[in-house]
# Entry
Amino acid sequence: MLHTINKSPFFSNNLESCLRFAKDGDPIMLYEDGVYSAAAGTKIESIMKGALKKHPVYAIEADVKARGITKVLEGVYLCDYSCFVGLVEQHKVSSWF
Amino acid sequence: MTEKEKTKIMFIMRKSPHGSILAYEGLEAILIMGAFEQEISVVFIDDGVFVLKKEQDTKPLGVKEFSRTFRTLEDYDITNIYADRESLEQRGLSADDLIIPVKVVEAGEITKIMDEQDVLFPF
# Structure
């Protein structure tokens, strides 16, 4: 199951809910404001470090760059839209919005 | 249609009833899908559990009170209805506070049920 998140973790509990219900090993795709979860040095960094131990985490690089996020958490895969499409092709999708 | 051909569809209800249109739209989608005789399940998570809260009185607000419409789900043979225990507890609710009977389950159980589905519809 691919889990997608498009809201800031400082605005909604979507990230926390996603992590509560995602199965270990399930990939997580951060896009739009969801990419704020991938930034280093925020108050949710420890939550994300825990998530990175259980899940492959992807973030759309265009969204990261657009928001001026220059320090991305180690282990987050920056990817483009074709990578997103590839993941959607391979998995069922659960979106948390 | 044989049992095997049925698609397993789960509706994930995560939004409160009157703060946005999503919960109501979710209910409508469930009822529409119910008519197609697929294998439907519904799970209430986060503020979604508020949708089923008893004694909602929307007359002063002047909007539709749709929580009681969830009682019709059993007419569509939709009986796989779950609520996340932690979401209920955090909001001071228990199964007794809800307008329809639900299976109160742990997050891990919901994870398993989600994994068995063919399609997930989040609302």
User: Anything to note?
Assistant: Residues 45-54 of chain A form the longest helix (10 residues). Chain A has a mean pLDDT of 97. The helical segments of chain A are 14-21, 45-54, 61-66, 81-90. The CA atoms of residues 49 and 73 of chain A lie 8 Å apart.
